[in-house]
């Protein structure tokens, strides 16, 4: 259910939704980076880790010159740089990535260095088991969520493997939802900021049948409204919840929980939505995925 001003109202309807299966209703996963202790605290900086079913999110506040290496990285990962830039070394090549960018780094050995320090978010799949085990909610997925399909990567990028990066300085466009980029493992939507609170008469309650949504707050404050659908088993039922989170923070919303989010801070509020693997419905909308020419969809 979307307000008519929301571009997602144009998504193709899937037909009548099936009744939720029983025994699959899970809890949302929350991490308050501004309040809780980091999982990693060393000379390079502080890093907070939270996982979803298929992914690991690492939020880092780096020291100047902080370097973050991955050895034998099993698959492609994302690096979101909302402030300053970074140097990314991979396969003997060095790529200078400016600030306010999103980069994708191939599998193998790599090093991300933030000369001036600052904030950085990296997104990995749970094939990075060393990171998954360090997450604040590492045990949150010990019970399998069988309604979420096993992760499968999307096709390799056109032109072969290399570090690719994209500016987030993309003008808003009527009919396009946010600023969406994808790689073989992730879809990242850097939403347009809200100045002040969101209009409460234009909310967007909706749900996903079989994939999670991670909402990363990078500035401001947000209230996430969650409603668990009733199944035939009362053990699945939950009270409605409102989760209010400052920035930086992350919330992982499980399917099929109905959800909508309201920017509630008095100044700039900015959210980044993360999906692993990429979403097909967003990818099918012409012009929505800004780097679609680099990363093809599955056949």
From TrEMBL:
InterPro entries: RmlC-like_jellyroll (IPR014710), RmlC_Cupin_sf (IPR011051)
Ranges for region Disordered: 1-20
Domain of life: Bacteria
Ranges that cross the membrane: none
Biased composition (Low complexity): 8-20
Gene3D superfamilies: Jelly Rolls (2.60.120.10)
Identification of the protein by name: 5-deoxy-glucuronate isomerase
The species this protein was found in: Pseudooceanicola atlanticus
Lineage, top ranks: Bacteria, Pseudomonadati, Pseudomonadota, Alphaproteobacteria, Rhodobacterales
């Amino acid at each position: 259910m979307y307000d008519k001003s929301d571009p997602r109202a144009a998504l193709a309807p899937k037909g009548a939704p099936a009744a939720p299966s029983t025994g699959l209703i899970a809890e949302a996963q929350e991490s308050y980076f501004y309040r809780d202790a980091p999982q990693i605290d060393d000379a390079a900086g502080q890093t907070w880790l939270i996982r979803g079913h298929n992914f690991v999110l690492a939020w880092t506040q780096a020291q100047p010159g902080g370097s973050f290496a991955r050895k034998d990285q099993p698959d492609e990962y994302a690096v979101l740089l909302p402030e300053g830039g970074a140097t990314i070394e991979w396969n003997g090549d060095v790529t200078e990535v400016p600030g306010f960018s999103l980069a994708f780094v191939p599998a193998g050995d790599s090093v991300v260095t933030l000369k001036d320090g600052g904030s950085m978010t990296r997104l990995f799949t749970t094939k990075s088991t060393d990171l998954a085990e360090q997450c604040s909610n590492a045990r949150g997925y010990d019970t399998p969520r069988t309604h979420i399909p096993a992760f499968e990567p999307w096709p390799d990028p056109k032109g072969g493997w290399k570090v690719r990066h994209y500016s987030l300085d993309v003008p808003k466009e009527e009919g396009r939802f946010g600023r969406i980029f994808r790689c073989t493992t992730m879809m990242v939507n850097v939403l347009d900021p809200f100045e002040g609170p969101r209009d409460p008469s234009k909310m967007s309650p909706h749900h996903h049948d079989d994939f999670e949504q991670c909402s990363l707050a990078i500035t401001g404050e947000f209230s996430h409204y969650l409603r668990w659908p009733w199944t035939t088993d009362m053990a699945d039922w939950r009270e409605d919840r409102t989760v209010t989170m400052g920035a930086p923070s992350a919330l992982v919303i499980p399917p099929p929980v109905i959800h909508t989010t309201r920017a509630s801070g008095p100044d700039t509020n900015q959210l980044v939505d993360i999906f692993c693997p990429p979403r097909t419905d967003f990818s099918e909308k012409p012009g929505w995925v800004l780097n679609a020419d680099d990363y093809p969809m599955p056949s």
